[in-house]
């Protein structure tokens, strides 16, 4: 064993021992049903010093030990954002220690194996000189680790190709806990790599992410969604290549997900569809995605968490569709009108923000909703007197009314006429009067958009 080889091995064992000691003190609760113990999984991944009589560790064994140590660190680090019983027992200081230990190992590894690392990175199509030092070991391990994690996730998934009831619980064969841990490990590896390097690894990353997304477990799906959110923010559409339609179909299939991952599926779907279809507002994927979401929201319009999540993340999709939103008004505005009078201020402020966005994008050319919108805004302005966020709500209501005044002119004035003498709306008058003057002095230029 060379001196550098021996030094790296000793450091690995030292870091592993330190984590093992902290891990042994952590109060893990063993599963009652004979399921998976994540603590036992972690202990099995941490390398142990070879007994004196054993033959010296060779290069392949060292590499395997480094890979397993990285997988253990991935679980410990990823646990910081987990609420699952398998990982919530891990103390935050142990997660932080794992982060630090992996950084130390990475630095030592590059000192002794920089040539090997550079070769692996180059084979993946990346420019080694542009890859940050702290990311190089992760990237080197990725081609080896991701197929292993994909297989582990798939073990407990439902295989529709089998000659059996495809809706049977595949987890009866393999406990789903193994797949949950693997999904967190996968998400950690993916989120360590960012633009412009992640795009070069799409052929490795996306199949594993799709496997997580196709799993029946919401916990595993959630980690796949977080991975796709990171992918969408760190690759360009061309790098997604022929995976685009497969990913978009998976997004649509998952829109009816459970409450715990609804926000993730909305954010993921909006990011993916806008990334891949941004130059085509009439893309059938925009239409399908929006209709799937609206159908789901119509069935659960009273669900606060779902509507807030959708309103928080939907604006990029609205911007991507632009004037074509007119085709969806008959479904969007009934939801908007209902949510404008929700009990919680967050929903009200978010829906007003999206109404403002829709008006700016479409100039409300479909006129049948103008009168109803004016009426609902007038009611909301008065309702706001009893709300905690009344000033913020009233400010946005006035902005929307001014927008409507500027774009609909006579039609708006006819709709507003019934409210003009309402003493509870008297403070709006001066603002609308000023906007009328601005309207007469300004010609609003809209970009050309083909007729809907």
UniProtKB/TrEMBL annotation:
Alphabetical list of InterPro entries matching this protein: ARM-type_fold
SUPFAM superfamilies assigned: ARM repeat
Superkingdom of the source species: Eukaryota
Listed name of the protein: Uncharacterized protein
